[in-house]
């Protein structure tokens, strides 16, 4: 299926009358086939796990509220090419579009963990000059402990060494873990934007906005 990609025009801020504008965040899901990329996406969109998803590559839109603010998520559920041993499937187009990335492997499929390792490496190489968008690595299918071939420690270490976030979840069992992944990624995107906009001052402003809000609640 052909995916139409609009240029990345995500922005945030206030409208002329001072009201908060909707914030947009483009999120790209990558990872080998069969790891649960569609399951994660559908869980986030509908709170449901439906079991079988078919091979459809799509960009979905989902509106959410975080800390009282309207967020418009555009979620690109990508397909990993069959019989492809390389990571050439990640194009500049993917990376330019994405404000943040979720790299998914299955805890019971070691080769899918290797794919994520290669993809992280490739993304870091490609974005060396323009700055890397935040990445969260997700070990999915946590419910299948008896078939585990990738330890939590290995996942955590990979994330640590590549400066990525890390979660182990089961899209099949819980909605909450999936929600945490998307919300944490959104926080990282906001930090990255603040840093781009105003250097360290931007981050301080963004942190104090969070604490200010927390105190008010
Ligand atoms: N046990 C278990 N099965 C899962 C979980 N998440 C997904 N699955 C199953 O894994 C299979 C693949 O899930 P998909 O979401 O289609 O995986 P995908 O990564 O989108 O696969 P491609 O479309 O081939 O890229 C399906 O049979 C799902 O039901 C999970 O957390 N636990």
UniProtKB/TrEMBL annotation:
Alphabetized PROSITE patterns for the sequence: RAB (PS51419), RAS (PS51421)
Keyword GTP-binding annotated: yes
The EC number(s) this enzyme carries: 3.6.5.2
Catalysis performed (reactions): GTP + H2O = GDP + phosphate + H(+)
Keywords: GTP-binding, Hydrolase, Nucleotide-binding
Alphabetized GO MF terms: G protein activity; GTP binding
Stored SUPFAM superfamilies: P-loop containing nucleoside triphosphate hydrolases
Family: Belongs to the small GTPase superfamily. Ras family.
Name this protein carries in UniProt: small monomeric GTPase
């Amino acid at each position: 299926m052909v995916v139409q990609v609009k240029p990345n025009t995500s922005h945030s801020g206030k409208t002329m009358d001072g009201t908060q504008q909707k914030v947009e965040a483009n999120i790209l899901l990558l990872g080998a086939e069969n790891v649960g990329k569609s399951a994660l996406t559908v869980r986030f969109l509908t709170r449901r796990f439906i079991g079988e998803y078919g091979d459809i590559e799509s960009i979905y839109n989902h509106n959410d509220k975080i800390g009282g603010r309207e967020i418009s998520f555009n979620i690109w559920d990508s397909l990993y090419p069959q019989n492809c041993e390389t990571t050439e499937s990640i194009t500049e187009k993917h990376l330019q579009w994405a404000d943040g990335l979720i790299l998914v492997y299955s805890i019971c499929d070691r080769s899918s963990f290797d794919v994520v390792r290669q993809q992280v490496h490739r993304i870091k190489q490609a974005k060396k000059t323009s700055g890397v968008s935040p990445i969260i690595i997700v070990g999915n299918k946590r419910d299948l402990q008896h078939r585990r071939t990738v330890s939590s420690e290995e996942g955590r270490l990979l994330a640590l060494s590549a400066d990525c976030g890390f979660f182990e979840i089961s899209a099949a069992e819980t909605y909450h873990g999936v929600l945490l992944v998307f919300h944490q990624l959104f926080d990282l995107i906001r930090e990255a934007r603040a840093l781009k906009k105003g250097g360290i001052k931007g981050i301080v402003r963004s942190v104090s906005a969070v604490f200010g809000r927390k105190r008010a609640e």
